[in-house]
Amino acid sequence: MAASLDGVFPATLQEKVKNSKLLVVGAGGIGCEILKNLVLSGFPEIEIIDLDTIDLSNLNRQFLFHREHVGKSKSQVARESALQFNPDVKIKAYHDSIMATDYGVNFFKKFDVVLNALDNRAARNHVNRMCLNAEVPLIESGTAGYNGQVELIKKGLTQCYECTPKATQKSFPGCTIRNTPSEPIHCIVWAKHLFNQLFGETVDDEDISPDVADPEAKGEVDENSKIDAEKAADEKVPGDGNVVRVNTRQWAKDNHYDAQTLFNKFFYDDIKYLLSMSNLWKTRKPPTPIKWDSLLLKQDETDQSYSRQYHKIWSLAECAAVFADCLKKLKLNLEKMDQGDSLVWDKDDQPAMDFVAACANIRGYIFEIGRKSRFEIKSMAGNIIPAIATTNAITAGVVVLHTFKVLQNQLDKCKSVYMRLRPNPRNQLLIPEKILTAPNKNCYVCAAEPAIHLRIDTKRVHIKEFRDEVLIKTLNMVNPDVIVDAKGVVVISSEEGETECNESKLMSEMDIVDGVLLKCDDFFQNYELSIIIVHIDAERDEPLFEVIADPNQLKPKKEETVKTSEKENGKTDDVSDGPSTSKKSKINEVLDDDDDLCLIEDDDDHNVSKPADKSATEEVTEATDKLQVKSPEKPIATKRKTTTVDDDITEILDSDEEDGPTQSKRTKRSEPDEKGVINID
Prior knowledge:
Blueprint: H1 11-18, E1 21-25, H2 29-41, E2 45-49, H3 74-83, E3 90-94, H4 105-108, E4 113-116, H5 121-134, E5 138-144, E6 147-153, H6 174-178, H7 184-198, H8 223-234, H9 248-254, H10 259-275, H11 316-335, H12 350-366, H13 374-381, H14 389-407, E7 417-419, E8 430-432, E9 451-456, H15 463-474, E10 480-484, E11 489-492, E12 517-522, E13 527-535, E14 545-548, H16 557-568, E15 580-582, E16 597-600, H17 604-607, H18 616-625, E17 641-644, E18 650-653, E19 677-680
Parallel strand pairs: 1-2, 1-4, 2-3, 4-5, 9-13
Antiparallel strand pairs: 5-6, 6-7, 7-8, 9-14, 10-11, 10-12, 12-13, 14-15, 16-19, 17-18
Helix pairs in contact: 2-3, 2-14, 7-12, 11-12, 12-13
């Protein structure tokens, strides 16, 4: 192909391409485009890995796949299709997870460049760490709708994928989901929990039944009423409903998954019981229970066309009919499985998706919450940002251009590139960064001596939760070992069964208290981390832990106030903020667990120099109207400074001697809009 034809590439690049070996991680929307580009460019040896199989919904943008490939391995089919473009290329495909133990640091060292085309954060974090340890350049990419991003990750030269915090998945207090939903997403989460309770893998935190006692009646009940509530939980609830604490799935099986019985339980009896908790409805509008034999549920059973009208909001009667139909189908699917196995909810499984859509809308009707179409619910429940084939194609093209630069050791030219739907003030759709972003000195992954402070309630968190929720889920380790540094006591071992006896103990019971230093080691990732424990007494519905990479974040608020005042007076100490993550961090985006690359919008107020003598009113007007402002005749090319116009608008003054987006820090805004920080999938 291109590399085999003299004159297409410069001679040096042509030689580099011919002798290179690349790894593509992911064979989805971007991965297919990257593989096609590499094959046509003449790269002789490529390996590609992906765990997924092809789904029908992939075919509109992953063009290497066709209808006859549905259900087959993505990586294997991508290989076969790509070889039709250039049969001379050697392509090796793996149908496996890149996080499997077969793909350690030595595996990554085989490649000249690694190209990421993933759709989830856990795998991205893992590949990031592997490439840092193997000292192999990584080109990270992602898209979300019409937005795209490509960036180079090189140890010691650029920031790594984990140098900046990524928005965590939105979580909701369990009592809100069970008792007082107020948004469509609350109803959707409840419906997904109901699916798991009836057909899937049950989790204690996903209980869908109302609380036994009024959660807002604390301080108003005496010991006798508490005892009565406990008795009600152990026995039965009189009069107000049949809310009995039994296994939901077993109860449904005993009732043969009868639609009327289940409907009345979840949408009438449970709601009646909620109404008995008077404190819940002092400031809220009470829900309206619905019975199966209600006139609202009468439906012409001969007309079933509504079930395929995915953009239509189903009526209450249509939702009830879908509910009954899905119960039958899901019951049959469950009966076909081995004893002890369960169904897994999948947005592309029609009865599973229909069930969640119907239940969410019925609950929305009961609580007078706006209902959604099946299409909208699928997007919210499946954490989907619509994928655009053109965005994937352009992003993949930039990835390969970056690959050419890396092979030629032109790393200084591999600046991050952002793609936008609309041109910026310089009429650019592809917006390059001004400079390479340097590593974050407080990063707990790529710093010389990675360390964090962990604010955690040591009296409530067990060792097993510490391992699963903090080390694996939040800090992205695979098989961690943990010892108490001062005593050399092994708390967690990667060897199976060695420290199983510790799992049920609280951290405080293992003498892991305020000020204790833990040494963590993940042999597979070749990753070591020091954790300094900071004990907190977490209140109800507050995060049980928070990871803090920057020690400055631990300073008292008084000191922070002083620093703020100093900055306002012109003293600007440059302290970069490190990542800070928590189990239940509150963000504005909803259920985005495939989230991934941070994009900073390139607006006029970020890049355009303005005369220093302009009034605050004029500056606010310009920022509001988004007008382009011409640079002064004599540009100020001295130090960069910030001018606070009011509480919400901060203007950045900079020289305009160089084109491209102004390098700026990521800053938190109280009410982020579409021109703030965007998460990429």
